[in-house]
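S1.2 Input.
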Amino acid sequence: MNVERTETLPVRASEDVVRVRQIVRSRAVDAGFSLVDQTKVVTAASEIARNTIDYGGGGEARIELVRLNARRGIRMVFSDQGPGIEDINRALTDGYTTGNGLGLGLSGAKRLSSEFEIDTAPGKGTTITMTRWK
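S1.3 Output.
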């Protein structure tokens, strides 16, 4: 996979979530995504950026415009040094939440992604990598 462009942003406040959304939408346009696919990738990024703040205590996002042969896509890596996720399977269950949300953030972001990976352990923080291909 070739990385054509990379941007790293802090994710510590609501304004950072807005900035992540703007960059992801811009990269989706650059990749030639349809309006529907732009909305899906922006929604997934927004959910995970918000989780990075709410559950991870803040962190960073790396947004990459990627190419694999003729395919173009966006890879988003969200990292924090928070408490980690104790039970990934439970956390990916629709309706499960440890906060006040609907419990659709992780599972919804996974559904909106072509590829989705979580690297976490209690006390070790969390890194979520999502890729959406055109």
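S1.4 Remarks. The chain has a mean pLDDT of 92.
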